[in-house]
Design goal:
- This protein has about 425 residues and is mainly beta.
- It folds into two domains: about 50 residues, no CATH class; about 350 residues, Kelch-type beta propeller (Neuraminidase, 6 Propeller).
- The C terminus is likely disordered.
- β21 and β22 form a beta hairpin.
- About 35% of the residues are buried.
- It comes from Cicer arietinum (Chickpea).
Length: about 425
């Protein structure tokens, strides 16, 4: 008689216990998602929609987004005058350095928004500048655009310009008044004949230009500076410009050569809350004027001063404690000899470099040159340099640091395109 078959030792499958996230942790988890994902998550349930719409959550999400910055790449997709695209591109993706052609997307065209330039970027909001010209005058306006959610303001801040040359006499800057939670545009109007600079402020929500105290110095030459180099840079509720103590007298196209004393330079900082100025001196290590003008920028949330040293090195100084001149520290010194392995200077005397972003995580500096169509990725750890590989012709000096946010939800901006769809540029 045969034995009965042995009973199987296999146990019935036990269903995995569902992961339960405590209610108080849900906002923390959601805050790491990007805007596109969160817009979809609003539809999951009423509680999530409520969380994602809460002002405190929006602040938390903005803080998290700052850890994943983008650069707004300014490019021309056609030969039509003023037909430019602005594409937010992740810094992490740029550092990966893919071979890529950016999409020709209607949502990124400034011409379709009746604008020409990006004045600045702050908390996920881009400030755009548009104008129309006649033989006698030019009408100028602003628009505020959040690319992540596809919302844009109506035309605001209209005024008439009857002075020749937009970049000759005007400089715009964009920032955030932390004390009143108001976005502000600052306009510098340089009167070369009187050697004075009028300052006007436009507050988003009030739709009016106000005149404040004149600029206490002379902004670096409008006429000879590359667009983007001497715009006011935003940092922690202030706008900051590199300027000159005394007046600037231009001589032909080589007016910059007239400045030969480092003591002429000063950094003017405008507090957007009090609308008052303070003057900061450049680092003491800046002791010689180069044929190429210095500049200021923001890297790793610190004000930085950049200068050329004897046409042999590019030096970046960092003000570790904002407003404390004694805290200037040399951050980087980059040898042109190293850069020349990857870059042939067309005009070494006037070749100008500008840092766009420094990644603490990867140790990579994104550096651009006014004579190159590609940016450079400089690795601080091994001093290696590679060019970016984007096939489009990018106007790198016009690039701005950008972070995704829901800021426009609080500003009642309109939907730009009813059929809006978030385009992934990579």
């Amino acid at each position: 008689m045969s034995n009965p078959p042995a009973k199987s030792r296999a146990q019935p499958a036990i269903a995995a216990s569902p992961v339960i996230i405590p209610d108080e942790l849900i906002p923390e988890v959601l805050s790491f998602a990007n805007v596109k994902t969160l817009m979809k998550m609003k539809c999951v349930c009423k509680s999530w929609k409520s969380i994602i719409s809460d002002p405190e959550f929006l602040k938390l999400h903005l803080k998290r987004s700052a850890l994943r910055p983008h650069l707004t790449l300014f490019l021309s997709k056609s030969r039509l005058d003023g037909d430019n695209n602005v594409v937010p591109f992740p810094v992490s993706r740029l550092i990966e350095n893919p071979l890529i052609t950016l999409p020709d997307d209607q949502d990124s065209r400034l011409k379709d928004k009746d604008c020409r330039y990006v004045i600045g970027s702050c908390n996920g909001l881009l400030c755009l500048l548009g104008y129309s010209s006649t033989a006698a005058y030019r009408e100028i306006w602003l628009r505020f655009w959040n690319p992540a959610v596809g919302k844009i303001s109506y035309k605001l801040g209209y005024f008439v310009d009857n002075v020749l040359g937009l970049y000759t006499h005007f400089k715009f800057a964009f920032g955030y008044d932390i004390s009143s939670e108001t976005y502000k545009v600052v306009l510098l109007v340089l009167d070369e004949a009187r050697n004075s600079t009028e300052v006007r402020v436009f507050s988003l929500g009030h739709n009016v230009w106000r005149t404040i105290q004149n600029f206490p110095a002379v902004p670096l030459p409008f006429r000879y500076s590359h667009p983007g180099v001497h715009d006011g840079v935003y940092l922690n509720g202030s706008l900051n410009w590199l300027a000159l103590h005394s007046n600037f007298r231009s001589v032909g196209s080589y007016g910059w050569k007239n400045i030969n004393n480092v003591k002429e330079f000063v950094i003017i900082s405008l507090d957007l809350g009090t609308e008052t100025y303070r003057q900061l001196m450049p680092p003491r290590g800046f002791d010689e004027v180069s044929p190429v003008e210095p500049s200021v920028c923001v890297l790793m949330d610190c004000l930085c001063f950049c200068n050329d040293f004897k046409r042999s090195e590019f030096v970046i100084w960092q003000m570790k404690i904002f407003g404390v001149e004694e805290s200037w520290t040399q951050l980087l010194k980059i040898s042109y000899q190293n850069l020349q392995r990857h870059h042939n200077f067309v005009d070494s005397q006037y070749s100008q470099w500008l840092p766009l972003h420094l990644s603490d995580h990867s140790g990579t500096l994104i550096l651009v040159n006014n004579q190159e169509r590609q940016a450079f990725l400089y690795n601080l750890r091994d001093n290696s340099v590679v060019r970016t590989r984007i096939t489009d012709e990018i106007h790198w000096f016009s690039a701005k640091v950008y972070v995704e946010s829901f800021v426009s939800d609080n500003l009642n901006l309109k939907i730009y395109n009813p059929n809006f769809r978030h385009i992934n540029p990579y």
